[in-house]
Design brief:
The protein is built from 21 helices and eleven strands. By secondary structure, it is an alpha+beta fold. It has four domains: 12-54; 64-84 and 287-404 and 540-566, no CATH class; 86-276, Orthogonal Bundle (Penicillin binding protein transpeptidase fold), CATH 1.10.3810.10; 410-526, no CATH class. The strands form four sheets. A five-stranded mixed beta sheet has the order 2-1-3-10-11. The chain has a two-stranded antiparallel sheet with strand order 4-5. It has a two-stranded antiparallel sheet with strand order 6-9. A hairpin with a 5-residue loop joins strand 7 (444-445) and strand 8 (451-452). Helix 1 packs across helix 3 (45-54) and helix 1 packs across helix 8. The longest helix is centred in the N-terminal third of the chain and has 20 residues, at 12-31. Residues 1-8 and 21-52 have low confidence and may be disordered.
Length: 566
């Protein structure tokens, strides 16, 4: 006769489920968790096993949300953006003191037990039964990691966050199964690394690297014993043990961690006592998030980089998907901004236009031959305070990229008319009478084949002394209006709009350039970036380059990075 397998034919995992299902049920009852009677009765051992087996096989662990850093062309930081301030690091980049401190206070038997600490469960049950409430928990570091993964996956959705943290038997069973899986697949060191990277440390800092930077302005690998104990103590209740807002409570909690480290043998009692005598020694780095914190007046450049990213399908199928990568992807975006050029542009603007003036101005510098945007300055600061005359409207760019309706370029448009004439065979020696005042020429051919034929529309030069005849070179130098309307009367409107298109000139509002002879005098609203790039085309001997703000993008994955197509 064949012998029955221990456990009545259940697999090892099911045997664990049966035991854990009963343990969890007992623990929930003894801890005083209020559950509907039907729900509690439905969680008998067999039912628990079935529920256990019905759970998805693998815990889905999405990439951790990390901060994005925007750099200038020399590697200096312009700004950082994030939905959660986190920088993932390997365990080797975390102080051994920090590793020991978190284990000592959160799960001192971490290296001795499996996914579940049975001794801890029994101890907690006994303690809670004696107190008549929940005075002690028994979640292992691995179980906490599972819960934190669920919270991370929930993002900023309050309903999903509540579901991920609710005190129910179902959640506990899920936690247990996935904890077993993680113990088998990752091992203790990787679990500890993941835990330290995902955990919230208060003050908007997620993960130990961000926390180390926030509270001490140093890397996690450089944390001292007392600093590590402080951070480890925060985890249980980030608001209660916040050292920025309650130094006394945080100090008390830190010393509790130090004492626990001595009790488990991580440090000697003498070392713990010496560390307890040390002040907290905070060197807080304020949270800086978004283009509003950009340095050197580069907020508008930063905002333009963001718009470029959000409109490029390379980084996601939808704008929402791209925004998620921007805020959570752990990107390092190296831009074309030259810090010296940016500083010079901003200085020049401030010398001529003040931020509280009724008028505003913007300046953009584009490198000929490459299209690299070197600077983007503005007289009004980037921000949302009306009292400080701040604005988020980028005056340098088109409406579709966060700008406005644009500005009339005026006489700066005349060289484009000249280029169209010369390309069409008109010699630069071409003379026109160019009186002080004259009618616009009519009829004038449009691109559609129609003609512009408005009679009696006057145009005049800036000064009455500007009277021809002039050739093209002289008329351009003197910016003679009547010369240029005469010129467009001969060559037509279409060659001018076609030349403008070749040089990237289009209306800032996204519309087409209007078919009128007045285009010769720059009456169409365009952006400063558009005109700066058009003139860069002249400087590069006619070679047009699309404006570029991003040189490279890399994405962090722990200590490794991968390049993204730009």
């Amino acid at each position: 006769m064949s012998k029955k397998r221990s456990g009545g034919g259940l697999s090892p995992t099911q045997q664990a489920a049966k035991f854990l299902g009963v343990s969890v049920l007992a623990g929930a009852v003894m801890a005083g968790i209020a559950l509907p009677a039907a729900g509690a009765l439905g969680l008998a051992a067999k039912g628990s096993v079935e529920s256990f087996d019905e759970l998805p096989t693998n815990l889905k662990t999405p990439p951790l949300s990390q901060r994005t850093t925007i750099l200038d062309s020399e590697g200096g930081t312009i700004a950082t953006v994030y939905s959660r301030d986190r920088t993932v690091v390997d365990l080797k980049s975390i102080s051994p003191y920090m590793q020991k401190a978190i284990v000592a206070i959160e799960d001192s038997r971490f290296y001795q037990h499996g996914a579940v600490d049975l001794k801890g469960v029994l101890r907690a049950l006994n303690k809670n039964a004696q107190s008549g409430g929940v005075s002690q928990g028994a979640s292992t570091l691995t179980q906490q990691l599972v819960k934190n993964v669920a919270v991370e996956e929930a993002g900023d959705d309050p309903t999903k966050v509540a579901q991920a943290t609710q005190q129910t038997i179902g959640r506990k069973i899920r936690e247990l199964k996935y904890a077993i899986q993680l113990e088998e697949e990752l091992g203790k060191k990787k679990i500890l690394e993941n835990y330290l990277n995902i955990t919230f440390f208060g003050q908007q800092a997620y993960g130990v690297e961000a926390a180390s930077q926030r509270y001490f302005s140093k890397h996690a690998k450089d944390l001292s014993l007392e600093q590590s104990a402080l951070l480890a103590g925060i985890v249980q209740s980030p608001s209660r043990y916040d050292p920025v807002n309650d130094e006394a409570e945080a100090t008390k909690r830190r010393n509790t961690v130090l004492q626990r480290m001595a009790e488990v043998g991580d440090v000697s009692q003498a070392e713990a006592d010496k560390a307890k005598e040390q002040p907290l020694g905070l060197k807080v780095s304020k949270s800086k998030n978004g283009c509003i914190t950009a340095v050197k007046g580069a907020g508008f450049f930063c905002d333009y980089v963001r718009e470029v990213f959000l409109t490029d399908p390379v980084f996601g199928k939808t704008k929402e998907a791209r925004a998620k990568v921007w805020n959570q992807g752990g990107l390092t975006i190296k831009t074309t901004m030259d810090p010296q050029a940016q500083e010079s542009a901003q200085k020049s603007i401030k010398e001529h236009v003040y931020q509280d003036d009724d008028v505003a101005t913007a300046a953009t510098i584009v490198q000929p031959g490459t299209g690299k945007i070197l600077a983007m300055g503005q007289s009004r600061p980037y921000g949302i305070s009306n009292k400080k005359n701040e604005t988020t409207l980028n005056l340098s760019v088109n409406a579709a990229m966060g700008g406005g309706a644009g500005y009339q370029p005026g006489s700066t448009f005349k060289p484009i008319v000249a280029a169209a004439a010369i390309e069409g065979g008109m010699p630069a020696t071409k003379m026109y009478p160019s009186p002080y005042e004259m009618d616009y020429p009519a009829p004038v051919q449009e691109c559609s084949g129609k003609v512009w034929n408005e009679k009696g529309v006057k145009v005049s030069n800036e000064n009455e002394s500007e009277v021809g005849p002039y050739d093209m070179k002289t008329a351009t130098a003197k910016s003679v209006n009547t010369y240029y309307v005469s010129l467009i009367g001969d060559i037509g409107i279409c060659p001018v709009t076609e030349m403008a298109a070749k040089m990237g000139v289009a209306r800032a509002d996204g519309g087409k350039l209007q078919q009128s002879p007045s285009i010769a005098l720059g009456t169409q609203e365009v952006s400063p970036l558009t005109m700066a790039n058009a003139y860069a085309t002249f400087a590069s001997r006619g070679m047009y380059c699309t404006p570029v703000a991003i040189e490279s993008i890399t994405q962090r994955a722990g200590e490794k990075s991968k390049s993204l197509q730009v």
